[in-house]
Amino acid sequence: MSRWVRVRIDDDNGEGAGCIGCLALAFGVFILIFICSFGSIIYKRYTDWRIESHRVWLTPEALDLYVGQYDYNGRYRITLERRGNRLFNKSEEEFCELMPISESEFVYRNCVNGFTGQARFAKNAHGQMVMLITHKDGREDRAARLK
Q1: Over the stretch 77-94, which tens digit does the pLDDT of each residue have?
Q2: 89 close to 96: Cβ distance less than 8 angstroms
Q3: Can you give the pTM of this predicted structure?
Q4: 11-36, pLDDT tens digit by residue?
Q5: Which of 2, 4, 37, 118 is 20 to 30 A away from residue 110, measured at CA?
Q6: Measured on CA atoms in the order 56, 57, 61, 66, is the torsion positive or negative?
Q7: Which long-range contacts (CB under 8 A, 24 or more apart) does 44-51 make?
Q8: How many Cα atoms occupy the beta-carbon half-sphere of 131 within 13 Å?
C-alpha cells in the first residue's frame, strides 16, 4: 500500500510563498541580468552623446586646411581626408573620425582598433597646418605635415 505525502513550503509566518514568490524572484533576477547586460550599451550611448555635444561644426573649406599626410618621426604615417563635413584619420592600422571640439582641437571617435585620445593642430605664420600633436594617456606625439 502506498502513502501519499503532501509537502508544503512555508515561509516564516506560516503562509506559503506559492507561485507569486517564485515569479517575483524570477522577475528580480531577470531585471538584474537586463541591467548588467545592457548597462554598458546605455553607458556607451551616454558617453557618445556627451562627446557629441561638444562637437563644433567646421565648414568643408576649413576642414580642407587639415587634409594631408603627417609623419610621426619616420615611425609611421597617417593620412587625413575630408568626407563631406567630417575629417577622418587613415593609417595602416587605424581608421577613425577626428571630431572637432574647437578650431584646432579634435577628439578621436569610432576608431577601428579602439584608439582614444585628442589631437591638436599647430599652424605656421601663414595659417597653414604644419603639425599634428596627439595626446593619449599623458603622452604627447608629434607628427609633421608632409608637402
Answers
A1: 999 999 999 999 998 888
A2: yes
A3: 0.65
A4: 555 555 567 778 888 888 888 887 77
A5: 37
A6: positive
A7: 51/99, 51/107, 51/109
A8: 10
